[in-house]
Specification:
It is built from 2 helices and 11 strands; from the N terminus they run βββαββββββββα. By secondary structure, the chain is mainly β.
Length: 145
């Protein structure tokens, strides 16, 4: 896939990222809804994305952090910080790019937390809060997730 160039609402943060796949995901967890006042729609980024500007990072849970523009507050990305095979995986906010990363919506997380009025057309993989939390639970073999 080709690298995409995007920016925050005020233009102070610029970002270049290559989607790992042409696929978008939507998260309906309480934190994403509070962060975006809706749901967070992202694409998985290949390692090596670049971002420049007044970036602020907030550790939002024991396993992840969120980045946003320090000037306008635009959501930038959600990154896994927990040890294990998902460590460093970064979901870039699709709204930063004019073509929304060109992918179809293929995944909805925290589907059981989604407000009743939020609806997307079509079928996709959907995971409940319990299914998402199970991905981050310590395994019996240590932190290999």
């Amino acid at each position: 896939m080709n690298a995409l160039s995007g920016r925050c609402m005020c233009g102070a943060v610029t970002i270049t990222a290559t989607p790992a796949k042409a696929s978008l995901g939507a998260c309906h967890c309480d934190m994403c809804r509070r962060w975006t006042s809706s749901m967070l729609i992202t694409f998985p980024a290949e390692p090596g994305y670049t971002a420049d500007g007044p970036i602020r990072v907030f550790k939002s849970s024991d396993w992840a952090e969120r980045a946003f523009c320090g000037d306008c507050g635009s959501a930038l990305w959600y990154r896994i910080t927990a040890p294990g095979e998902m460590h460093g995986e970064t979901q870039i906010a699709a709204g930063l790019f004019d073509d929304a990363a060109g992918g179809d919506l293929n995944l909805e997380l925290y589907i059981d937390r989604k407000p009743q009025g939020y609806a997307f057309a079509g079928d996709r993989r959907q995971m409940t809060e319990a299914e998402v939390m199970a991905m981050f639970a310590p395994s019996e073999q240590g932190d290999s997730q």
